[in-house]
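2024-03-11 09:14:02 DEBUG pipeline.ingest accepted 1 chain
2024-03-11 09:14:02 DEBUG pipeline.ingest length=181
2024-03-11 09:14:03 DEBUG pipeline.predict start
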Amino acid sequence: MMTTLGNCKVLGWYRWEDVYKFSNNISSAVYAFGIFNRLPKEKRLPIDMPNVVYFGETGGQEKIFDKKHENGKGRLETSFHRRMKEHVCRDKIKLIREEMLTAENFIGIWIAIPKNHMESNFVKTWLKASESELISCYSCIHGSPPRYNEAHKTNNTKINAESFSQTKVKEINRASLENYI
C-alpha cells in the first residue's frame, strides 16, 4: 500500500447520503463503496472488508462548469463531485441500490485524497496507481476483485491447461522469470 497510503490523506468512511455536503471541495480522490449496517471506524482500510463492492478514482482535471445546476445559473463543480452524481444517476450506486440494499443496511464511501504537496502533473498517475493497488490488495485478501470492478475480473475461459500452446506459454513465462531473477 505504499503508493496509496504513502501519498494520501485518508478522510475515512462516510454515509453515502452525506457525500454531497463536501464533495465539491474535493478535486481528486480514490474511493470505495461498501454495504454496511454500521459505519466502519474512520481510518479502517477498505481492502480487508468483504462488504466493499467497488473501488474508483477520479480527478486530476480542472473544475467543470455545470449549466444544469438547480439554481438555473450553473456553477463550477469538481470532478469528484461530478463523478459522485454520475454514480447515482446511471452507475454503481444505482446498481448497488437495485441489487444489494436492504432496509437494514446503507452505502458507505471511503475517501482518500492526494497530499497537498503532490505536484499537479503527478495526481492522475497517483490516482490510477492507487486504485489498481487497492483492487490488487483486496483481490489478494478475498480471492477476487470487488463485485462491481468488472474490468479487473479474469475471464474464465475453457482453456485446456495441458494443451501444447499453454505448455509453451508456461515454459516461456518460467524462462522469463528465471532470467529476471
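2024-03-11 09:14:41 DEBUG pipeline.report The beta strands are 8-15, 29-36, 52-58, 64-66, 75-77, 106-114.
2024-03-11 09:14:41 DEBUG pipeline.predict end
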